[in-house]
Write a structure and sequence with these properties.
The complex is a heterodimer of chains A (about 375) and B (about 150).
Chain A (H helix, E strand, L loop, with lengths): L2 E2 L10 H7 L1 H4 L10 H21 L6 E4 L2 H15 L6 E5 L4 H12 L3 E5 L9 H7 L4 E5 L13 H10 L3 E5 L11 H4 L3 E5 L10 E5 L25 H16 L1 H22 L4 E2 L10 E5 L5 H9 L3 E2 L15 H5 L4 H4 L2 E5 L6 H20 L5
Parallel strand pairs in A: 1-11, 3-4, 3-5, 5-6, 6-7
Antiparallel strand pairs in A: 2-8, 7-8, 9-10, 10-12
Helix pairs in contact in A: 1-9, 3-9, 4-5, 10-14, 11-14
Chain B lengths: L6 H8 L12 E6 L6 E9 L2 E10 L2 H14 L4 H5 L3 H7 L8 H24 L6 H20 L1
Helix pairs in contact in B: 1-2, 2-5, 4-5, 5-6
The chains are: A alpha/beta (about 375), B alpha+beta (about 150).
């Protein structure tokens, strides 16, 4: 049995989305910037996609910028907003549990002379409005806090944080990559100025993302050229990808209630079963403020990469934040930020559930996991 | 992240050799990697200057386990002096290569072995605390002589 429990890394493209994308490769292949009929047909579809995406997120169509990924969107927003708004100040605040693409964009700004500070989180991975208040000032251009954390699934109170940012005249950005469709994003209601998304996290295709940039916010583009996306992101519109993103987002919210129920049931089942079968396990992150797809478990005394590899040879795909799984040999900065100690930092597995998982797969996973943990613990020097 | 371990590495990870502890070892060492947090414990049983038995415990990744497994297999039966010269490069080549970021696992295994040997030699000296320094030195020499004999074989 093959079991894929790494849906926070990427998801399988929904076949219904794939079917809708196909004509944009072979029949409706026009360049949306061309003014002939084939190009204009593509342009109309592009406009429709922007309108639908904006409507689903509670924003405006002209603020939707399509990118190649959320990484690109985050780079564009963090660096572009900072660079274009230096008249306001010099300070950027990002949470200490951001994805590397936000963190590294901020680090690049720090090297360029901006003041960059990382907002601490509590042991559940939450950024409190008080923690933000402590660091923010009138010089702050931008505050960036991810909606849902990719490793521990913690859900932030975005509206409350955006309110603090606005009190000081700063823009508020959120990387909402892991939030779809778990949260109902309402850009205007939540006070979001800037937002990033990626289609492949919600059963859409890889290679397409969204940078939502509210009207009136100055942004310096990363990619210049033919003036696409109102000059904010040059490059031929990726119509198959854009249409795929739109259809995937539509489906995600259309089927949201049933989907959440399915994933939540699996998450509860998996966690109960792990706790029953394996001793000494602990949940990383918040038990309540967490998306139903994520389960990050600390095993203690055994190393995460070894657990992952052992499961991988049993055809089970999971993820770990252990140092041994990283090319730079550094343990997860998220797990460090929530205060795990040295040994526990490297003893974690992230299970991320999705639409295509079944109860049977969970049974098989826990059966294998039990053996894996038993075997590795049998020769661990840490008791 | 995707790691393409060789078949041999996977074999050693899934079925490691010389796992466990030795009660009353002649040499023991614990070694940890400050960067990645891995840990290895080595236990030695030495007889007539040779590694009669070696065992290890691991808190580490697949390649940490596999490198220690392969190394213990290779040094078992080796003279202490030969084991001291054992190189991490040998582990890497015997496994058919390791992913670049995993090379340090083999280095750590060899460091652990050498630390256990050093512990054995220290015990050997301190086992005869009442004796004069001169004799302790000669005891050390005996080991060297025995080693020479075995290498000639």
């Amino acid at each position: 049995m093959k079991v894929y429990l790494d849906n926070a890394a990427t998801t399988r493209l929904d076949p219904r989305v794939f079917a809708k994308m196909k004509p944009y490769f072979s029949e409706k292949y026009g360049n949306a910037s061309s003014i002939h009929s084939l190009g204009q047909a593509a342009f109309l579809d592009l406009q429709m996609a922007k309108e639908k995406v904006a409507k689903l997120l509670g924003g405006e169509a002209e603020s939707v910028v399509f990118t190649s990924s959320a990484t690109e969107a985050n780079n564009l927003i963090i660096k572009g907003v900072a660079q274009a708004n230096q008249a306001k100040g010099n300070k950027i605040l990002v949470s200490s549990i951001e994805h590397p693409c936000v963190r590294e964009s901020a680090n690049e700004l720090a090297r360029a002379g901006f003041t960059v500070e990382f907002i601490p989180v509590n042991s559940e991975g939450l950024v409190t409005p008080e923690a933000l208040e402590k660091l923010i000032d009138q010089e702050t251009i931008l505050v960036s806090v991810m909606t849902v954390n990719n490793e521990i699934g913690t859900v932030q109170d975005i509206a409350a944080l955006a309110k603090v940012a606005h009190k000081y005249g700063a823009y508020f950005h959120t990387d909402a990559v892991q939030a779809i469709p778990y949260l109902k994003i309402d850009i205007k209601k939540m006070g979001i100025d800037l937002l990033s998304l990626s289609a492949h996290k919600f059963y859409g295709p890889k290679g397409v993302g969204v940078a939502y940039i509210a009207k009136g916010i100055k942004v310096k583009p990363l990619i210049v050229g033919g003036g696409q996306e109102s000059g904010l992101r040059a490059g031929t519109y990726n119509l198959p990808g854009i249409m795929g993103l739109m259809f995937a987002l539509e489906l995600a919210y259309k089927e949201r209630v049933g989907y959440l129920k399915q994933v939540k049931t699996l998450q509860t089942y998996l966690w109960q079963k792990i706790k029953k079968e394996i001793s000494g396990v602990k949940l990383n992150g918040s038990a309540t403020k967490r998306v139903p797809a994520n389960l990050n478990v600390m095993f203690g005394s055994i190393e995460g990469e070894a657990i992952l590899m052992d499961l991988s040879y049993k055809d089970i795909c999971v993820s770990t934040g252990s140092a041994c799984s990283a090319t730079d040999l550094r343990a997860s900065s998220v797990l460090k930020a929530i205060g795990l100690d040295k040994n526990n930092l490297n003893s974690n597995i992230r299970f991320s559930l999705g639409r295509f998982n079944t109860k049977k797969e969970i049974d098989y996973t826990v059966k294998c996991l039990k053996d894996t943990v038993k075997r590795l613990r049998s020769f661990s020097p840490i008791k | 992240m995707a790691l393409n371990y060789t078949k041999k590495t996977v074999d050693h990870f899934l079925h490691p050799h010389n796992i466990g502890e030795i009660k009353k070892p002649d040499g023991y060492a614990q070694i940890g990697n400050m960067v990645c947090g891995d840990q290895l414990d080595f236990f030695l049983k030495v007889e007539k200057g040779k590694i009669k038995d070696v065992k290890f415990l691991s808190f580490g990744c697949a390649s940490n386990i596999a490198t220690a497994s392969l190394m213990t297999e290779k040094v078992k039966g080796m003279t202490i002096e030969a084991a001291k010269k054992y190189k991490w490069e040998k582990i890497v080549s015997d496994l058919g290569g390791l992913p670049h970021q995993k090379i340090h696992c083999s280095v750590m295994a060899v460091q652990g072995l050498k630390k256990a040997i050093a512990d054995y030699e220290k015990r050997l000296e301190s086992a005869k605390p009442a004796r004069p320094v001169k004799k302790a030195a000669s005891a050390k020499k005996t080991v060297v002589i025995k080693k020479k004999k075995t290498t000639k074989k």
